[in-house]
Amino acid sequence: MIPVTYYIIFSAVLFSLGTLGVLIRRNSLVIFMSIELMLNAANLSFVAFSRIHESFSGQIFVFFIMAVAAAEVAVGLALIVTIYRSRHTIDIDGMSSLKG
């Protein structure tokens, strides 16, 4: 049986990689996937802490986070496709004209 601390450490590493992906990359699809990686890292830590405390409340939070992430994917990809059709690029630097 794997100790829960390994799950917590793995979750922290995944969250750190997602944060680096958001801060370093310029491609909006990679940034979008990095945000999803950060959400999955949070889900993993919720399940790990739920296992420590022997309750299902963390797993219920994971269910709601997954529902929000599915809605984010639908809306985010629609926005990315719309921006690509109008600008012919998904590079973040090419979208600087969208500032208000």
Structure characterization notes:
There is one protein chain. This protein is mostly helical and 100 residues long. The protein has one domain: Helix Hairpins, CATH 1.10.287.3510. The protein has helices at residues 4-24, 28-53, 57-87. Helix 1 runs antiparallel to helix 2 and helix 2 packs antiparallel against helix 3 (57-87). The longest helix has 31 residues, at 57-87.
Order of helices and strands: HHH
Structural class: mainly alpha
Distance between the termini: 54 Å
Mean pLDDT: 88
Strand segment count? 0
Morphology call:
elongated
CATH topology: Helix Hairpins
Main beta-sheet strand count, sense and barrel state: none
Number of helices: 3
What is the helical fraction, as a range of percent?
over 70%
Low-pLDDT sequence parts:
none
CATH architecture: Orthogonal Bundle
How are the SSEs ordered, and which strands pair?
Blueprint: H1 4-24, H2 28-53, H3 57-87
What attributes characterize this protein structure?
elongated; 78% helix; 100 residues; 3 helices; Helix Hairpins; mainly alpha
Characterize this entry briefly:
The protein is mainly α and 100 residues long. It has 3 helices and no strands.
